[in-house]
Structure formats: structure tokens, C-alpha cells
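Q: Can I see a sequence and its folded structure?
A: Here is a first one.
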Amino acid sequence: MTLKLKHHKNKFFILILFFFSIIINQYYGNLGAFPMDSFHFFDSGFRVLNGEAPFTDYWLVKGPLLDCIQALFFYLFGTNFQAYVLHASLINSLITIATFFVLKEFELKTTYCFIYSLLLSILAYPSSGTPFIDHHSAFFSLLAIYCLLLGIKNDKKIYLILIPILLIFAFLSKQVPAAYVAISIIIILLFQFIKTKEISNLLYFSISFFSFSLITLLIGKFLGIKFYYFLDQYIFYPQTIGSTRFENLSLSFDILERFIFIIISILPLALINLRNFFKKKDKEKNNQFYIFLIMFFYTISLILHQLLTKNQIFIFFLIPILLAFSHISLEKSKIKNKKIITFVLIFLCIFATYKYHLRYNEGRKFHELQNVNFELAVQGSKISKNLKGLNWITPQFKNNPEEEINIINNISHILKKDKRNKMLITNYPFFSVILDENFFSPSRVYTGDGTTHPIKNNKYAKTYKIFIDNLIKKNNIEVIYVTNVVDDNINLKYLNFDYIDSYKNCFKKISIIEELVMYNLKSCN
């Protein structure tokens, strides 16, 4: 009877976690927008759905997997914003439930597993709400970490087979932090191999990695992706960005302030395991210490990633995970006052979750919406029925979202009226969906720092121009439209990246409205 009650209790908790993790992300995913980031995979998912291929039909520096997953969501649920947010919500649910099962596997009490997993669901994807490359890469990497933990604990080969698959998913979401996590996992597996001499572990891992890599390459070939396009855009070009960031990386006490709760959360895990390492024997102490090393390397990987990207911090979801494993280590150790320490761990987790929930979920800081009055938001359906449910307000027009909507609708009207083959350069990557038309944009979005496409003086700038030339010829483009909506960081100069200026004799410039410029293509000699 007791086992039956426990089984029902588990199912009840899982059901709550499933629905809560989806609902909370759906809510915050619909609260405001930073168009360039919030819609990053909106049009590109639509393009993949309609037969276009990443790397071949648009320049891609990061996240081809997200485009493909989003295409599947659009196919299943329709091309609308709710299907877009659902993509992120289900990943949030996946991570939440996986965490619950892993904590259960490490024999933490069910109620505690539920509390830590619930708090994780608040800090995981809702900070963005919409699909984002950093989140996907970190979360697929986390699933790989979970498989490594379970593989070491249970000695089951299936986990060694899953690890490379999940790491490839993470890498195809974003190269880092996936690469850092992969390196740390390989180091730990090598240490374990040296200790156990079980060559089968490395064999299963290697066979899985090479097999799935081959399958991925075959899928890419089927989609029409040329391998050298993938190498140029996804491997070699990003190195021209990343190398300068490593050179400019500076470590200071500011790091302690920014990541203080993450550091505090890993301290109990470190102290308990270091203490146990010198007291317990053989397999038990080694397995416990492996848990600490794995979580330590994963944490360092994500912190390093945040320092190099200099984006808004999104890794506070580490706090419930680290405190949960600290709790597990506490339960397995012979330490006095366990109940008091347990209370402190849970209180700390609730307090930190509440703190960052207010800042990143309620305040929408990740999408630069922290100074926005959401009561001024208007319905996204005023732009298109495809955006129904979205409470539209952006940082650029935080005091008058209606003005921005009028600008977008004017642009939409002009684009819809023009029946020619068009290319659109914009940081509002949703026009293809709302107008049900392909605009053959050479990149998803456009920044001035080279993170989305090569800019002037980069050694790949010429390659990018050739890429655009080929797109124009391939799709018989007759006109290029460039949006010039007011933005503190993005302007027309960055959006056309000197491409049009380099071929002035090929274009005739016409300013239609203040926010939209048209370039009619002429014959070039």
C-alpha cells in the first residue's frame, strides 16, 4: 500500500511540474519583446518549414537545431507565436522533469525533489520565454551531465550512448558552452577509464559519437547543406569573434558579486565532498567525489561562457541544482544538525529563486525590458493574428508601443503590395510569417559587432558578399528592402553592412517612408 501511495505521489508531482513549467514559461514568453532576440528563430523556422536550408539559404553563425525544431513546432501547431513559445516551454518542462527523476535516482526524498525541480522551472527558460541559443545549449549540456551522473552511479551503458547525442544537440544549438562541457565530460571519462580500466565505456561513447555525427552529416546532405558552408559559417568564422573575447577576458572581484548565489550554492557540495573524500572508502567516496567534479566543471563552463559572451545572465537555474546535490551529499554524510542545514539550503534556494524571478521573469531583464511599464502593452494581434497572445511592448518604444505597431503595419502593407521577388534586411524577423512570404534575408538578424554576420574588415566579409550575390541570383531578387526603425544599437549602416555601398551602380535607392528604404536592382557591369 505504501509503495502504491508513493507511486501516486510521484505521478502527482510530475503532473504538477509538467503543467507548471509550461504555463509559467508561456506566461513570461508572452510578456513584452525584444524583437531581434525574442523572434530570433521565428522567420527562420518558417523558412526551414518551407524547404529552405540553414547555411545554404541564409548565413548562420549559431543555432541550426533551433530552426529545425521550430519548423517541427510550426508544422504541428501552426505558424503562430504561441507555437513558438511552446517550443521553449516544453524544453523547460523537459529539464524540470529530468531533474526530478535524477534527484530521485540519487535517493533524495520525493518532496525535496519536487521543491528543487519546481524552483528550477522558475529560473530555467522563463528568463527568456522564447527559444534562445544559450538556453538550449546549456540545457542539452545539462541533460548530458545528468546522463554522465547516472552512468557513473548505475554503471549502465545506455547513458554513455546518450551523452554524445545530447552534446551534439547542444553544439548545434550553440558552440559554447557545449564545447566547454564536452571537454569536461571527456576529461572525467578519461579519469574514470584510468581508474577502472573498462575500455567498453570509452568504446560505447566513441561509437555513439561517430555514429550520430555521421547521421547528422547525412541529414545535412539530404537538406542540401554544403559541408564547406557549415565549416565557414559555424566553425571558422565564429573563431574570428571568439578569439578577441578570450584576449579581452578579465577576471575581477566583480565576478563574485555577479555570481555570488551560484558560488554560495556550490560551496556546501564542495565542502561536504572534500570532507567525505578523506573519510570514506573506495567506490562510495569516488562516486560522490565524481558528482562534485561533474557539477563543478559544468558550473565553471557556464560561468566562463557568461563572461565571454557578456550577455544578460541566464545561468541562475544552477542554484536549485547545486543546492539539491549539496542536499544529497548532506544526506549521505555523517554530519550533525542535518535538519538545520537542510532548512538553510531550502531557504537559500527559495530566497535566490524569488530574487532572480523578480529581476529576470517579472522584470524581463534578459530582453532589456526592466524599465518598461507592461500596463502600456498592447495585443500583438494588432500586427497579425499570428502574434495573438503576445503583449507587445519593446525597449525601443516603451512609452508608445502603438507607434511601433503603426510603423510595422505600414512596412507590412508596403511589402505585401510589392509583388516582386524581394530581399528584406531587418531586425524584426517575423515578416515572413505574418505575410506568409519568403523574403530571402541573408541572415536571421543583424548586429553591428559581427556576431550575426561578417562586417567590414573581417576576413569573411568577402565570403559573405559572395554568399549574398548568390542568393540574389538564385532567387531572382529584384528589390532589396531595408528597415531603419529607430534603435539605440542598430541602424541602417549596420543593417546593410556596406554591401549596397560597395555596388552603388547596381542599385537605385528610394526612401519610401522614414523607416523603410528600397533598393531597386539594376544590371551591373
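Q: Show me another, different protein.
A: A second, unrelated one:
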Amino acid sequence: MNTLTRLFQLGLPSRRLPHWGDAVIFFLLAAFLYLGLRVGLGSPEVIKGPEISLSPQVLPYYAGLSVRRMAAAYVLSMIFTFVYGTLAANYPQARKILLPLLDVLQSVPILSFLPVVLLSLSAIFPLRLAVELASIILIFTSQVWNLTFAWYQSLTTIPRDLQEAATVFRFGAWQRFKTLELPFAAITLIWNSMMSWAGGWFFLMAAEIFTAGERDFRLAGLGAYLQEAANQGDTGAIFWGLGTLVLTIVALDQLVWRPLVAWSDRFKLQLVEGESEPTSWFFEAVRGSWLANSVVRLLRPVACWLDDWLARRFPWRDPEARAKARASWILYLLGALASPWLLYEGYQAGLMLSRISFVQWKLIALAVGATMLRVAGALAIALAWTLPLGVAIGTNRKLATWLQPVVQIAASVPATALFPVVLLVALSLPGGLNAAAILLMLLGTQWYLLFNIIAGASAIPQDLRYTAALLQLSRWQRWRTLILPALMPYLVTGAITASGGAWNASIVAEYVRFGGETLQIRGIGAQIAAATAAGDYPLLLAATLSMIIVVSTINRLVWRRLYQLAEEKYHLD
């Protein structure tokens, strides 16, 4: 039986008798059928264009719409991750361009280009379709970067003996992907997927409530429901909306993420069994379901055929010759196609930047420095508490069972909902708005580190833990010789995405409207927000480019070197 078939089976045992899992499967099928009928037939009676109803009866429909947008963005993110990360990891020539480009892309303030994307799409597609596509693109840009970095980190830290074995057995691209790369990266991809969904909820809310002047681009969904409830001061509707959001997150944890965590435990690199494996009631229900086994048996021929077709479509090729032959002409072709457009746009940008005075450039430099200090402070605070908690969750299954859904709920609650509370508390502190800005940036930073640390701790082989226990290492020795080296690749991945999140969060942390007043402090985020509000496009361009250049430089001088250190020294060999 080939590997794809084994992966597809998910460890399902052979059963002929009905199982309690069948009841769960039938219940979910009925629920999804009802939701489909509600979306297809019932929605026009409740929703009329951009008008948002606050009736609790529409919340299942709104939750379905929001999850659908999140799922579409996630699928798009995974496709981008596999293609982009694989090219960056396997093609040295492409890596020189793709990694710096990835640094630039993840440092671009996401909320600043939503109007551009939306107005561009509305000129091509019907308005409602354009708004839906724009929301999916916005969520995609919030989900994809940490997934791509995690996939790249996994590909570059695969143990050398496994890479050599794949070369000796002449695995083609598809065989290498299904038997080596995807299993090795499964744990970190699943935990980063949780983080992507948690971060995606924030930008989903922003996309669903977007308005531009007299143009109303709102979308029916949980975000629009919560905003409408807040605008009308309907406390009951706010609680109904937040309750639905929490229930949705818990349902996704129980039906998707916890089963995936339990399934991915088989891919941990270890020579002995773990003390306690992760469990999932839904995963056990699917494994024991006669209906699920029957579906797998029906689809097995299709899986075998697809596996054979992909193996023939992507046969073995010499890695060195492939890298030299393909990467070169692809890069030349892309460069030739993009050069005229880049030259024209660069010329137009230069004309706009020429309007910025020396004094303004000096203020931008000072603002960048101020924001950099806040980003460093937020990262230091985040690392101080996420490192011990992440290791505890990743190494203690009982603790993970209780804290995993709590962490997901906390990470998924939109940070904007907490801004008023944070401001009320922080403005009374000695630091004032500076302290509030750091706390707000922390809300957009800490979860990237936490989820990556949990993934790294979960991937530590059990035999290495037993060895550390047999050697009677002290707690500090265990951290210095086992835990920190094993976490190094994951820490770098979490830090680089957390850094980008903190820089993006500076736009809303350094320039806020509260109590009918506009509060701002010196920072590049405040300059971007103020330039946007004033319509000062030259200053907006100069500030945005300055942020991109600084973030990319930091990534190149700091995080990229740490990536290289992790690739060379911290392999599980």
C-alpha cells in the first residue's frame, strides 16, 4: 500500500459494526446540510444588502459566512506556502530574491492597502464579488507569512540522514513531499495554522466593517454584527456576537485542530513511545466510524491513482542540475516581464517622494527609532512569558488538553475589542500612551511566539527527554542543552513573524481615537495613520517605505543570520 493511501486512511481500523462515531458523523452531515440550505434559501429573508440584522437568529448564518471566508483564505495561504517555501528552500538562486521579498511582503502594513485592493477589484468584478475577494485577500495576507516561514524553516532543518535517504531512493518531488517534507513539517504547520486562524479573525473583522467615505463595503458576518451592535449600544447583541465567536472557535478546536494535533503525533521523530499521546474524542469517533471506513475504502482507488499519477508527473531529477537549470531562466523571465513596470512605478514613486522635505525625513527617522524601541520591548515581554508557558503546554499533554482551547480563544478574540480596556488601564500608568502602545503591540505579537514555541516543544523527541532524565541534568542544564537548541528554529520563525506583527500593530497602537479625541505619540505607525487620515500621500508613501526598509534590514541582519545558524547547527541529526 502506498504512502498516500496510508496517510489518507488516518489510521482507520477495519470495522463492520456501527460505532458511536457514526452518530457524530451523521449529526455533522445534518448540520452542514442545514447550514447550506440556510445560506442558499433562507438568507434573502433575513439579510438585505449591507443592512446588518442584530437578531440572534442570524448568527449561525453570519458565522458560516465568516468561516467560509477564513477557509478560502487558508486554502489560498497553504497553496502559496507550499509553492513559495519550496522554491525558497530548494533553489539557491531563487532564494536570493524570494526571502528578501518575503521579508518585504510581511512587513507591509496590511490595513493600509485594503482600499487599493478593494477599489482595484471593484473595477474588474461586480461590487459584491469584489468586496468578498478583497476580504479573502486581506485575511490571506494575515495568515500566509508565518505559514510560509514555518514551511521554509522545516524544509531547511530536515535531518541530513533523512535527506540523504530520499536522494538514495531517488524520490521525485511528489514522493519527497508526501513521505519526508510534509510529515516532518506537520506539527509546526498545524500549530502555525492555529495561529493563522487566530490572527485571521482580527483582519476578518476589519474586512467585514470596511467603509470608505460614502461608500459602504460592509459584509454580512460576525465582524459586521459586532460593529453594528457596538454602534447601536446593544449590550445584549454584543454578548450574543462574542458568544457565537467563542463557540465557533471552540467548535473548530474540537472538530479540526485537536484531531489534527492527535493525528500529527505519529510524525514526531523519536525512537520510543511518548508518555502520553494527544487525544481527541472526534478523532477517535472518525477512526471508529464504520461510515468513515466505508468512505475511505470507496476513495482508496482514487487516492492510489492520484498518487501514481503525481509520482509519474514529478519524477526524480538531480537536485543540483535542477536548481541551476530551472531557477535561472525562470528568474530571467520574471525579471524581463516585471522590469518595465517596476521602472515606471519607481519613477512615479520618486516624483512623489521628491516632495518630502529634509525636516520630514528627519522626523520619519526619529519615528522609526521610537517604534523600533517599542517593538523590541513588546518582543521581550512576549518572549518572557510565552517561552515557559509554551514549553509547558508542548511537553505536558494533560496541561495542553486544558490550555490549548483557552489559548486559541484568547488569541482569536480581535485585539481591537480589547483596545478600550487597555487604554483605560494604561493611560493611568506613568508611561501613559507609550505604555498603552507597547501593550497594544504585544497583543499582536505574543501569539506568534507562543504557538511556534508550543510546536517546537511538542516536536522534541521523547528519547531525548529520557536521556536528559537519565543523565540527571539540572533544570538549567536541560534548558541549555536540550530545550533551547531544539526550540531555536521555532523561536526564529515565531520572532520574525511576531516582529512583523508588532510593526503592523504600531499603526493602530500609536494613533488612536478614544473618547472623542485623537491620541498619538511619536512613531512610524502614527505617521502612517496620520498621513492616511489627512490624505497626505507623499508622506504616507515615505513612511510606509521607511517601515518596509527598516523591517527588511532587521530581518536580513538579525533573523536571517539566526535562520542560518538554526539550519547549520540545530538539526535533529
